[in-house]
Amino acid sequence: MEVDDVSHVRQFMELFETQKAALQAASKCKGKRPKDRKSRDQLVNEFMSQYIATKTMLARDKHNIHQSFIAPPYQPSIASLADLKKLLLKDLQLETHHRGFYALLRVRTPPMTMTAVTSIVEDENRDGVKLQLYQQQDDDYRKGEEAVQMNNVCIVKEPYFKVMSDGCYGLRVDHVSDIIWLSPDDDMIPLSWRSQITELEKDAEDLKVTGNGALKAGNVHQAVEFYTLALQYSKTFDESRIIKLNRSLANLKLGRYDHALEDAGELTASYQKSEKGFYRAARSLYELGRFQECHDVLKLLLAEYPHCAEARNELSRTEHRLREQEHGDFSFKTMYEAAKKNPPCLDCATYIGPVSIKASEGRGRGLFTRKDVLAGELLLCEKAFAYCWADSAEGNASSKTSLLINMHTNRGFVGTQADMITDIVQKMYRNPSLMPAFTSLHHGDYKPVEQSIVDGVPVVDTFLVDRTISHNVFGCPRTSLESHLQTPEQEKKDKGYHTCGLFINASYINHSCDSNARRSFIGDMQIVRASRNLPAGTEVTFWYHTPDHTITYEKTQKKLENWGFKCTCTICDQNKSTKKNVKAKRAALLQDLMGAFKNRDGADLAKAERLLAAIEKTYLVPATEVPRLALWDPYLLLTRLYNSMNRQEKAIQTGCKVLQSLGFVIKRQDPSSLKSPFEVERWGLMRDQVVETWVHLWTAYAQVAPNLCKKAEEYAKVAYKVCVGEDETFELKYGKLAHQAMFEGVDLGHAVQNMSL
Ligand SMILES: C[S@@+](CC[C@H](N)C(=O)[O-])C[C@H]1O[C@@H](n2cnc3c(N)ncnc32)[C@H](O)[C@@H]1O
């Protein structure tokens, strides 16, 4: 939704065809055992020269947009290691997933990281092969390449042997759960590969101290390995307790909150008096978004240790989260402040308003109102499950923007989706408790495996993650206020957002061009508000792509093809059924209309109105049933002009026409008079310009019917809240301009178009 989809861009299609041809050529070798395999030493030598060249190239070429190819999907291994048989490299067959087997491999080179972490590995026969690992984490505490160190030993479950893009033969591992790194004392490691573990190393205290050193030095993952080893050799309850406490801290730092909680959580039962245990359990619960449990643990902690200042701070933070989660009580001002930093990730909870997930006929599941809701009401204010920031600052080396190409679905996106796949894979791998919420999301026709844990390890399917993202990802502006204030030129330039977010609850909202809700963003928070009054039981919809009257029915559907459905809303239905000659007539009238506005001696307003009346006649169905998308924009132009000419009555007339074209029904006490008190009986399509329209009405009424100002202002605020997410900043943005227009003669239309943050 509003991402930069380049699937139909020529360069992308060419790239795609080249890759497809390479895949087809490779598939011809399926099942063959290559006879021209290079020796291990030859592979190592070639790799090392490439390694040096690539390092130099990467240092020079930081700013290029990288390409990421999603290979044809295959399932992760769900076999227990005990049920797999060992396989030697010489037995590998090309383009084959060796189901029922595993390979035991030792690393022979340093790792090279591009989109995958690559190195040369050997088996016990001293045969070598290239190993490519995808979706490896790349964060502050452990680079993906850290595991791939010289002499480390791993098991690749059900290995996939293939011809790589450089023509070499190699093993490709897309699923993080398909690779198991063995600890140095693992019995599976052949004796000839095993470094001797000394008696000293078998001492729990020594291992713990070494773990502490690693933790202090920032080698957090290594610290976890030492603590885990220490626990194996620990003989006393108290010793294990300390080691677990330390491992809990290390896991917290690694973002492995489930594990951190498991170690620290035990402390709430068996080590009732452990301050650190309580604290680390609370921290883990906070990061997992389990704020009520976090609150309860902090209360227990403070009952035992009333002077713990850190716990008091945490408690106050958690109480804020609970107010957000339970009552939708958000401080938007604080959120804007936090959204100024990079990346704009906010410390906020998710609020689920009066909505719930239910079956939606013909559309899978959808989000429905649980009670009557008014336009502007908050339905969701949701923290992203995953959020990948694309720093658009010129030449920024940390920008994660790449071209993601899915060879199976024929789709290409520019943005941060490739990183989002890794982020989500890693998040679930580290925190299996978070898996069900994500794996329940819509993923088209992809058939995932049913097991989620094998040998105690979570099974994470990279291809399921990719398909789920492609159906549910949102392109995100830093804030919707920022994009609301864009000039029309900037708006035209922006094809789609490169920053993207995944929001579990908002993902259940189905599309309609004639939608009744709108989403907005403040950093990694998505705000969904009703844009119409919705009776209980109404399905909430928003548009995946903004409806556009200038494109054909076929093009509209093409824009939605990624989601695998055809939109059958009233706007699309009418677009489809309107006869070609009617469309041609409408287009010709619109062309004349543009001419009337661009008249050299100033706009010919009378002609413009005549033409607009003629265009209205080309619609056979009332705007209340099907919004008239070609009309609101020119009527808004007229409203701006009339207001700037101090022809307020005309501005009110045309302003109301803007709203009527969008499907609004405005009920007046005296239907024959535009100066009669009114109210919105039915809200129409909520385009951003609805806010400006109401502000025009507000300022125009100030001159001709001041008693109606308040109402127009109130509606402007509701529209603003729906479009931007909140109305705390309304006064600063529009309120000020409206006053300047009313009392200082400022041209409102001009001022609105030149507003900035
Ligand atoms: C973001 S998900 C929305 C939730 C989804 N319906 C579910 O069951 O989880 C997008 C998918 O919903 C379905 N969908 C959304 N809007 C639709 C519509 N107007 N008509 C039919 N299917 C729709 C499509 O299958 C689409 O790929």
By DSSP (H or I, 4+ residues per run), the number of helices equals 25
Low-pLDDT windows of residues: none
Q: N- to C-terminal separation? A: 24 Å
Structural class: alpha+beta
How would a crystallographer describe the biggest sheet? 10 strands, mixed
Determine the mean pLDDT. 91
Q: Rg to the nearest angstrom?
A: 30 Å
Molecular shape: globular
**Beta-strand content:** 15-25%
Task: Write up this protein.
The protein has 757 residues and is of the alpha+beta class. Among the domains are: 237-338, Alpha Horseshoe (Serine Threonine Protein Phosphatase 5, Tetratricopeptide repeat), CATH 1.25.40.10; 624-753, no CATH class. It is 42% helix and 15% strand. The chain is built from 25 helices and 29 strands. Strands 3, 4, 5, 6, 7, 8, 9, 10, 11 and 12 form a 10-stranded mixed beta sheet that branches. The protein has a 4-stranded mixed beta sheet with strand order 1-19-18-2, with helices on one face. A 4-stranded antiparallel beta sheet has the order 13-16-26-25. The radius of gyration is 30 Å and the shape is globular. The protein starts with a strand and ends with a helix. The model has no long low-confidence stretch (mean pLDDT 91). The structure holds S-adenosylmethionine. S-adenosylmethionine (SAM) binds next to strand 15, helix 13 and strand 24. InterPro entries: Gramillin-biosynth_MTr, SET_dom, SET_dom_sf, TPR-like_helical_dom_sf. This is SET domain-containing protein. Residues 353-545 form the SET domain. It comes from Lepraria finkii.
Q: What is the topological layout?
A:
Layout: E1 4-5, H1 10-27, H2 40-60, E2 66-70, E3 85-86, E4 96-97, E5 101-107, E6 112-113, E7 117-122, E8 128-133, E9 153-157, E10 160-163, E11 169-173, E12 179-181, H3 204-216, H4 220-233, H5 237-253, H6 257-270, H7 275-287, H8 291-304, H9 309-327, H10 332-338, E13 351-352, E14 355-359, E15 365-369, E16 378-383, E17 386-388, E18 402-406, E19 411-415, H11 417-430, H12 435-439, E20 453-454, E21 457-458, H13 462-472, E22 474-475, H14 480-484, H15 488-493, E23 500-502, E24 510-511, E25 517-522, E26 525-530, E27 539-542, H16 553-559, H17 570-577, H18 580-597, H19 605-617, H20 632-644, H21 648-661, E28 665-668, E29 678-682, H22 689-704, H23 709-724, H24 730-744, H25 748-753
Parallel strand pairs: 2-18, 3-5, 8-11, 24-27
Antiparallel strand pairs: 1-19, 4-10, 5-7, 5-9, 6-7, 7-8, 9-12, 10-11, 13-16, 14-15, 15-27, 16-26, 17-23, 18-19, 20-21, 22-23, 25-26, 28-29
Helix pairs in contact: 3-4, 3-5, 4-5, 5-6, 5-7, 6-7, 7-8, 8-9, 11-13, 18-19, 20-21, 20-22, 21-22, 22-23, 22-24
The structure holds S-adenosylmethionine.
